[in-house]
Amino acid sequence: RLEHPLLGYSVPQQALRETLVKHLAERYGWQIDAQDLVFLPGVEPGVNMALHALVSPASAVLVQTPNYSPLLHAPANWKLPRIDLPFHANSQGEYPTDIAALERALPDHGALLLSNPHNPLGIRHTPIASLSPEIAARSVTLMSASKAWNIAGLKTAFAVVQNAELRQRFNAGRLGLVDSVNALGLEATEVAYREGGPWLAQVVTYLQDNRDYLAEAINTRFPGITMHLPQSTYLAWLDCSGLGLKNPQQFFLEHAKVALSDGLEFGDDCGQFVRLNFGCPRPMLKEGLARMERSLRDA
């Protein structure tokens, strides 16, 4: 694409739309039409567009916690109340959705924000809009190649909105704030979904090995930390409450020089948690764990 001398405003080409339609059908058995796609410069702008355009003022937004901080903060951007539906670990260390609590809460809320795969818990779901036409008619699904293929800086995402009236209202939420999409991002997204499958499969295998190495290390070398095994993503949610530290994230930053994400970014009651990104070369992961281990031993 860079051999073309012009990098002006671009529009999504039909080939990109057809590539995404094919991907969703093959990956999820989800049949959509090309016109169901809306292209955006990111998932986060899309979340805010949807809340502003589709949720009535004063209607509450239901969010499962812990959760990715831009999702937690989005309702407040539009002065919408946020109601948290906490995950709780079961005896196997898994975090199932409390279906009974969800069913009780849904009728009283204007929207439900879902993160898939869940960040930071790594729970993998089927896209909810793919389950039935009735659900699709009330859903905005935001997706991107950015994290899987490491092209987040190209600022490209897309929404799937199968209800035409809902799609029109969603698009009206741009309000001059959500601009056109990066020309190179459109190209990279098409190539990623069309040709990047074999590369991604290799990366997923490497990440799974990293995940298993990390889980073994936590279980055998860090008696004060517990970790559930994520089904997806390259993120580990570490419960450090057994360490007796006031602020685990600050401790490891200061004493181990390892920068983890503070659990409080994901929920008000998550101060004893940290999020570790294991999407890195294995030697870097080993070095980080060794530093953390030494810092606890020397404390």
Describe this structure as you would to a colleague.
This protein has 299 residues and is an alpha+beta fold. The protein folds into 2 domains: 14-195, 3-Layer(aba) Sandwich (Aspartate Aminotransferase, domain 2); 198-298, Aspartate Aminotransferase, domain 1, CATH 3.90.1150.10. The protein is built from 10 helices and 10 strands. β2, α3 (69-77) and β3 form a beta-alpha-beta unit.
Question: Which structural class do you get from the secondary structure elements?
Answer: alpha+beta
Determine Rg (CA atoms, Å): 21 Å
Helix count from the secondary structure assignment: 10
Q: How are helices and strands ordered from N to C?
A: HEHEHEHEHEEHHHEEHEEH
| Residue-averaged pLDDT | 95
Q: Regions with pLDDT < 50 over 5+ consecutive residues?
A: none
What about the largest sheet?
4 strands, antiparallel
- In the CATH hierarchy, the third-tier topology of the largest domain is known as Aspartate Aminotransferase, domain 2
Kindly provide the name of the CATH class of the largest domain: Alpha Beta
What is the domain total for the residues?
Answer: 2
Range of helix content: 40-55%
Under the CATH scheme, which architecture of the largest domain would be assigned?
3-Layer(aba) Sandwich
Indicate the proportion of strand residues. Answer: 5-15%
Number of strands: 10
Strand order of the largest sheet: 7-8-10-9
What is the straight-line distance between the termini?
Answer: 53 Å
